[in-house]
Amino acid sequence: MKANILIVGVGGQGTLLASRVLGALAEIEGSDCKLSEVHGMSQRGGSVVTHVKIAPEVMSPIVGVGDADVILAFEELEALRYINYLKKGGTVVVNTQRILPMPVITGARSYPEDILDELNGAAGKVIALDALAIAEKVGELRSVNVVMLGALAAHLGVPFEKIDAALKAAVKPKLYDINRRALECGYNAREDI
After folding, report:
1. By residue range, what is the domain housing residue 32?
2. What spatial distance separates the first Cα and last Cα of the chain, rounded to whole Å?
3. Inter-helix orientation angle 160-170/15-28, to 10°
4. Which terminus of the chain has a lower count of CB atoms within 10 Å, N or C?
5. Is the pTM of this model over 0.70?
6. Which pLDDT score, from 0 to 100, does residue 193 have?
7. Are 119 and 83 in contact (CB under 8 A)?
8. CATH code of the domain covering residue 124
9. For the chain, what is the mean pLDDT?
């Protein structure tokens, strides 16, 4: 497997867990993987970015501007904020959930209404799903990140058994069952988009 993936979201959405699952997947596949986590204001709901590079040999953990094969976005505005990292013809896998940043909450700015249109104009392919609604059906709102990982794995053509094994390696045993359901729902939901 070879992929440059930029995971973007808001603090508390689980970008770090998502990167650990992808690291475990790379190990299962016998690939090298480097991760670089940029926390930003993660404790306060700020922007969070994680760089994931998977290849037979990875020299640097940073995904450069215009180098991402995929942007995995847990929130719409964060996808738009980092779209310049996507390579020409790349894919954006985006959760349609909107988490309002402080300037929008205070009324200083408004939340853009046409984000998916802008993403469609900039990306080769956009896979958009309401991962929050899927996580709610699973019974664990905090599993949005795992739903999104399922959609990403399906897009990349990763067999479900491999991404499931990576999930099992990355989460605590007591959290595995609920997260496996979220992973499976995300993996299958991607087919309906």
Report:
1. 3-131+157-170
2. 24
3. 120
4. C
5. yes
6. 37
7. yes
8. 3.40.920.10
9. 90
